[in-house]
Amino acid sequence: MDPRLVANRANWDERVDIHTRSAFYGVAAWLAKGTGPRPREVEALGDVSGLTLVHLQCHFGMDTMQWARAGAIVTGVDFSPAAIDEAIVLAERAGLSATTRFVCSDVHDAPIVLEGQRFDIVYVSLGALCWLPSVEAWAQVVADLLEPGGRLYIHDVHPFTFCLDDDGERIGYYSYFEEPDAPYVDDEPVTYTDGGTLTSTRNYQWNHSIAEIMGALQAAGLVIDVLREHDWTVFAQFPWLVEETTRHFVAPAGRQRIPLTFTILAHAPE
């Protein structure tokens, strides 16, 4: 594995315990409420009963299992052994083991580790692409995992925001475009959640422009059905964002809107 991804894996291994204990993820409440997929995702993908779904870079599997609660047969893939171990335990606690499996694999190796299995849906949730040096390699993985007619859903942080400083005030913090040999290097001892500190702090991240993401999917043979840029996000990425509703952050009145997240829907040709 790329040494930079090895460092990322050590960083994410340590995040698991912090995240499962955090108020940000709220595991106890998630178990008690039996939370399903977000309404916007259900609107995009419709009834998934009996469909196969693979979640790439699933972390410890909460988003994965929400689709199992909606009736899908789900597989979560993540490169962190600690995350996969926690996901398996959480699936048992949630009573979802029968329709859920978790596999430890680097995303690039997923088609091989999953032994050529193809899926009706490839699902990618927030905060995934920035951990990968090549969006073209990722797009080929997506294509290799989809059944003919199968669909991709991705909702992720907009690459424009990666260009801004931590206060969201100054542009030029990092390139808007993919820089495989010049990643953003971070050594912060904290994560995006509350609680806990890291010792394996070094991690590497890469930005990918909207055009690069769409072009990579098209080059891999997928058909783009929908691209939406959103003026909202689900976490306080910048200090000036205001929480309009629970986990729905927007620019305050009087401030110009910028793209904060995006959604792409695509499909593999029949």
Element layout with pairings:
Blueprint: H1 3-21, H2 27-33, H3 39-45, E1 52-56, H4 62-69, E2 73-78, H5 81-94, E3 100-104, H6 110-113, E4 119-124, H7 135-145, E5 146-157, E6 184-186, E7 203-205, H8 210-219, E8 223-230, E9 232-233, E10 242-245, E11 248-250, E12 261-267
Parallel strand pairs: 1-2, 1-4, 2-3, 4-5
Antiparallel strand pairs: 5-12, 6-7, 8-12, 9-11, 10-11
Helix pairs in contact: 1-5, 7-8
Folded structure, characterized:
With 270 residues, the protein is of the alpha/beta class. The protein has one domain: Rossmann fold. The protein has helices spanning 3-21, 27-33, 39-45, 62-69, 81-94, 110-113, 135-145, 210-219, and strands at 52-56, 73-78, 100-104, 119-124, 146-157, 184-186, 203-205, 223-230, 232-233, 242-245, 248-250, 261-267. The strands form three sheets. Strands 3-2-1-4-5-12-8 form a seven-stranded mixed beta sheet, with helices on both faces. Helix 7 (135-145) links the parallel strand 4 (119-124) and strand 5. Helix 1 runs parallel beside helix 5 and helix 7 packs across helix 8 (210-219). It is globular, with a radius of gyration of 18 Å.
